[in-house]
Each structure stands twice: as structure tokens, then as C-alpha cells.
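Schema walkthrough. Field components (list of strings):
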Amino acid sequence: MPALFSARMGPEWWLAVRNLVYPAFCRQCRVQLLTEENGYFCPACWTASPRIERPYCSCCGQPHQEMRGFGSLANYPCATCREHPNAQIDRIYGAARYEVAIAEAVKLMKFHGKQRLALPLAEVMAEFAESEMAWDAYDALVPVPLHRVRQRERGFNQSALLAEALGGLLRGAPVDHSLERIRPTRTQSRLSREERLANVRGAFAVCGDTLQGKRVLLIDDVVTTAGTVTECARVLKYAGATSVDVFAVALSAPHTRWV
Ligand SMILES: [Zn+2]
Ligand SMILES: [Zn+2]
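Field assembly_structure (string):
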């Protein structure tokens, strides 16, 4: 459809025509989408996708299962984090659970190239950050990097897209790309603990010295076992970062121990 039409007809008309010619349907419930806010999910499915709310663990960010619904309680460490504290990461924050619409959106972005979803996902993160995080406590947003071969295949790094979008929504720390994945790794979720540690060991490096003395917020799409982000944090601290927190769109199911 020529751009001329949209310019003459105004956005509402253009949207109405587009809805007729190219109808779009919610990926979750299949209802037809009539607005352009989020081209893949209806507002009902998007808002119903569970966010992480208080109380959640003040170390790993997982909601306290037994305390669901007690929204006003302060955050405190979960039993796993008390027993096995993470030596590299001070805090992990996740904005949502890795479920329904948000999980689907992450997969569409990551595996089906729907880069437009970075913005609505970053908005979910920004909403969480505004109520739960001290945003000015960070000097740099560092995306978890992909290996260059993977990045070339995919065409983009989803964590970098999220970091850039988030940086645009919440003014503050700039995005820093000096963390690199220097060795390809296998998907962590299907490996045993020992395999996970070996898989990411030596996979990352920091180039340059821009992160020296900086308080880093590491940005990831989904944190599952925390093995990858823990290894990134170790390398970032070795390169001079004074602290490393992690912020992900979503946290997958609770783990039994760190890494
Ligand atoms: Zn829907
Ligand atoms: Zn925890």
C-alpha cells in the first residue's frame, strides 16, 4: 500500500484500511487486533501476562511463592539465596514471569525476528524499574552479548535491543557494548549444573576500560539458571566494574540453586 494513502487519509483511516487488508490477530487469544499499540498481542492478553510483584527475593528476584498476594510486604532473600548466595551478582531483577504473552513475545522477537517487540517489552521493564529500582544507581547498561556468528545469523542481539529501548524510555545510564562473547556457547537450560559452568566459562571478555569503577546493570531477555549472567558478572568485575546487578524482562521458573 503506497505511503501516499497514509499521508492523505490520516492515521485512523489508514489503520482501518490496514486492518481490512492485512488483519492482525493476537498471538495469544487470536482476537483481531484493531490498534497499533502492540502489533502482536491484544491489550487484555498483554496486561494479563503476570508481572513480578512484591514480595520477591531481594537477591534472585523470584516471587516468594508462599506469599503471593501479600503485595505490600518488603522484599527479602529466598531460602535458596540464603543457602547459596551468588558471589558475583548483588541483585537480579525480573519484570515479569516467563509465561503466556510475555514469554511468547520474547520468543517471537528472538527466534522469529520480530524486533518491534523490543519496545513493548522494554516498556514492561521500565514500568517495573520505575516502581522497584533505584535507576540512578547505575552508570552503564550492558547487554548480555551474543557470539558474532550467532548475531550475524539472527541479525540482531535481543538484549542489546532491549537495553537501547530501555535507555530511551528511562533517561540515565548509557548503553555500553564492551562486553563480548568470544566463544560460542550451547543453550544453558538443557545442561546439568557442571555442564552449564563449563559451557560459559571463558566465553566472555571485556574490551577497553570504559567499565572501570562503574556500577553496571546487565540487561538480559530471560534469566533461567543465572549461569550466563553470573559468568558475565565475574568478567565485568575482573574488568573493574564495582558492582553488577542484572535486569531481565522475564524470570523463568524458580531454580533450586544459583548457577
Ligand atoms: Zn489476546
Ligand atoms: Zn532468591
